[in-house]
Amino acid sequence: MSARCQVLGTTPGFGHSISHSHVRTKRRFNPNVQRKRYWVPSLGRHVRLTVSTKGIRTIDRRGIDVVVAEILARGEKI
């Protein structure tokens, strides 16, 4: 599963791990991505989305119908 939120488009961030001796090694900051199943009344079916925890809060705030309509308008397949 890719570390990308379908609602917000959040992708991994990159940076350095810095040790005690200040040696820098590359690291990756992945978003907290969950696989969730939602009932979408406008489509009349369940939809499985890969969403970050912030994306879940966005769905709770704005509603699943509005969010799914935006995802479909972008041309993403659900």
Automatic annotation (TrEMBL):
SUPFAM superfamilies in the record: L28p-like
Gene3D superfamilies, per the entry: Ribosomal protein L28/L24
GO BP, one annotated term: translation
GO cellular component entries: ribonucleoprotein complex; ribosome
Protein name: Large ribosomal subunit protein bL28
Domain of life the protein comes from: Bacteria
Keyword Ribonucleoprotein carried by entry: yes
Gene coding for it: rpmB
Protein family according to the UniProt entry: Belongs to the bacterial ribosomal protein bL28 family.
Statement: the UniProt record of this protein carries the keyword Membrane: no
Stored InterPro entries: Ribosomal_bL28 (IPR026569), Ribosomal_bL28/bL31-like_sf (IPR034704), Ribosomal_bL28_bact-type (IPR001383), Ribosomal_bL28_sf (IPR037147)
Pfam families, A to Z: Ribosomal_L28
Keywords: Ribonucleoprotein, Ribosomal protein
Sample GO molecular function, one term: structural constituent of ribosome
